[in-house]
Amino acid sequence: MTQQYPFQIKDHGDKVIEMIVGDVIGPEHKVAEALRILLKKFDFVILSLKENASLHPSFAETMAELSAAGKLL
């Protein structure tokens, strides 16, 4: 059985990766933990939201923490 992830990953090379999300992101969403891991491994991480996706207001503090290093675009 294949595990389903709530995002897609696209490697742009040169230690730049893009995470594409299609749903509402809150602080407990799997995307938050995945971003923490990716930000340690890559120079830059691009967070792209699909048309129906959004950042829940409760994600604001987590987003500030994740983007503090200047590697999250």
Brief overview:
The chain is an alpha/beta fold and 73 residues long.
What share of residues are in beta strands? 25-35%
Amount of helix: 25-40%
Poorly predicted ranges: none
Number of domains: 1
Total number of strands: 5
Radius of gyration: 12 Å
Instruction: Look at the helices and sheets and give the structural class.
Output: alpha/beta
How many DSSP H or I helices?
2
Largest sheet: 3 strands, mixed
Strand order of the largest sheet: 1-2-4
Shape: globular
Distance between the termini: 33 Å
Order of helix and strand elements from N to C terminus? EEEHEEH
- Mean pLDDT level: 93
Question: What does this protein structure show overall?
Answer:
With 73 residues, the chain is α/β, with parallel strands linked by helices. It has one domain. It is 27% helix and 32% strand. It has helices spanning 30-41, 60-67; strands at residues 7-13, 16-21, 24-25, 44-49, 54-55. It has a 3-stranded mixed beta sheet with strand order 1-2-4, with helices on one face. A two-stranded parallel sheet has the order 3-5. A hairpin with a 2-residue loop joins strand 1 and strand 2 (16-21). The longest helix is centred in the middle third of the chain and has 12 residues, at 30-41. The chain is globular and about 30 Å long. 14% of the residues are buried. The mean pLDDT is 93.
